[in-house]
Amino acid sequence: MAHHRGPLHLLLTLVFILFLAFLYGPTLTIGILSFQGPDGGLTFPMNGLSLHWYANLFEKQQVGDFGGSLSRSLLLGLSVMVCTVAFSLLAGLAYRRRFRGDSAIFYLTLISLILPSILISLGIGILFDQLGIAPHWYGSAFGAHLTWTLPFGLLIMFAVFNRFNKVYEAAATDMGASRWQTFWLVVLPLILPSLIGVGLLGFTLSYDEFARTLMTSGSFNTLPLEIYGMTTNVTTPVLYALGTFTTAVSFLLIGLALLSMRLLTRRKRRQPPIEAPADEPVNY
Amino acid sequence: MSNGSVELVGVVKRYGDSPAVKNINLYIEGSSYCCLLGPSGCGKSTTLRMIAGHESVTEGDILLSNRNVTDLPPRRRGTALMFQNYALFPHLNSLDNVAFSLRIAGVAPAERRARAREMLALVNMEDYSEALPDQLSGGQQQRVALARALINQPEVILLDEPLSALDPFLRNRMRTELKRIQKQLGITFIHVTHSQEEAFALADQVVVMNNGSIEQVDTPPALFSAPRTAFVAGFIGGHNIIEGTVHNREILVSDGIRLPLPPGTEAREQPAGVSLRCDHISIHASPPTNTTSLPMTITAVEYQGRYVQLQGDCGDGLSLAVFQSDQDYLAHPSREGDTVHVSWHPRDLNMLYRTPEPSGVSPFVKPINEKPIPQGETHA
Lengths: 284, 380
Fold this sequence. Notes:
The complex is a heterodimer.
Chain A: H1 7-33, H2 52-57, H3 66-94, H4 102-114, H5 117-131, H6 140-163, H7 167-174, H8 179-207, H9 211-214, H10 223-233, H11 238-268
Helix pairs in contact in A: 1-11, 3-6, 3-8, 3-10, 4-6, 5-6, 6-8, 7-8, 8-11
Chain B: E1 6-15, E2 18-28, E3 33-37, H1 44-52, E4 59-64, E5 67-68, E6 79-82, H2 94-98, H3 100-104, H4 109-122, H5 138-150, E7 156-160, H6 168-185, E8 188-193, H7 196-202, E9 205-210, E10 213-218, H8 220-225, H9 230-236, E11 239-243, E12 245-247, E13 250-252, E14 258-260, E15 273-277, E16 282-284, E17 294-303, E18 307-313, E19 319-325, H10 326-331, E20 339-343, E21 350-352
Parallel strand pairs in B: 3-8, 3-9, 6-7, 7-8
Antiparallel strand pairs in B: 1-2, 1-4, 4-5, 9-10, 11-15, 12-13, 13-14, 15-21, 16-20, 17-18, 17-20, 18-19
Helix pairs in contact in B: 4-5
């Protein structure tokens, strides 16, 4: 039992603890500070413990429109999510066979991942300006977010369809299914978990996107822009309450998605494990 | 009229310039069990997929119950294909997998479930209707796949290496099961395999394929007693292949060895040699007086249980494998380096030809009084 662990093990453990501290420390600090008492400041020590700043969040602020920016970001994130799933799926299906210009389109898509976000944001902003269209969070910013989420979505769909066994489609065809029925009854259910993953990624990428929104959101801010604006103007822990609250929203959404995936598989597996008949070995 | 017969007329499959199947003519009687036997890459699976409609036909026609189905999609052919790894839909339980084609056909849920249960009962899987494929063993998955293929009452079931994914014990059990179901339902089964043991155990008609062509079509006993080409004799195993030229009722193996051929064998063409079953060779300690024999130096002895395989050298480049019954072996054990005398009856020498069987020689000939229905007409 006595498995000897050398000094290297100790060192690596220390490095890992440091890593965790750097990863979660700041978020945790902000979380703790958000529960400051009404007279508390932006730094330690804690001056009492209250939910004062959370209540304050939902009141009219002197600077910053928290409720408006949160709902804008949620709406934008959800729209980006829906479009990312739909377009990535269709593009993934298209790339299952070769077509003229497929690699050109692929590299064009990837370029938007490589270019600095702020340049893309700037470009879209200038383009809208030149065209005489007012930039809006639901217009230009929506497009700017898609330039970020679609390449990721497409890459994930590549991986999904690379692993997809075409024999299932052949089996469906053999049993008389049309191409549409094959897609709807066989392909889609099998790739559904991956699609949920693409959707989640699309949402989170959009929800906290700053650089690509900066020059494209027009006169109304999304949440990350609003928070950034508030850091320069707001000097109370309401900022921390805001940060903690939005992080919680993200976690809640991811949790809901994971739960729905779990329920989806549970529903299919409601049957208890199968007892093998005595004469036949079962390999699970 | 649907009798479940399958006919391939001059069927060719080419991928680009390379032929996968070269001009195949084959008639498979309805309600029979046919095995396509051959090594990998011989075109047997391609042929099966062409019959199923999953592979286009480059040239020639495929007739099913005398309907030309060459250009019909899989479902309108009256065939059902059982895929090599079964291809059960992982997201559907056994019942829904079996009922899938009924769902496609628009059968009401209650009726399709009832019919799927009947099919599961036929393959003894009624207790597993709620199980997902990955909760089933290989043998259980295969039963479900078979039920799924059977539910639409196809005229022909096509099985692509159905037993290769199973362990040897299960393989023998499922083999028996396949034959039972085929007999019970009277459906034509076409089964692709590379195992001659499987083909012999199951088939009414074995089609040996090599290199995109048919080498021989026969019943298992006929195939084993008279392989037509050296390839067939080698592939089914248990045969010595002795090359040589025929001259004056003798086969000339080398300057020193001439083997007499049985009387009455008139070669249709110049044979490439003869085959001699390993279990039709007798071993003697001293030269037998009543028959001609050859001395043989034993080079290897392998105990196989039911028999012992002796490998030996008769000189002049002739080496033979002999299956000796374990009783005979244990009574007179021989060791490597021993010299024994081998003999056989001349009638056990079977002529081998260079070319595959010409069409028309096969015992499986299509009845001539039936006229094919023109292409495009659908099945009532």
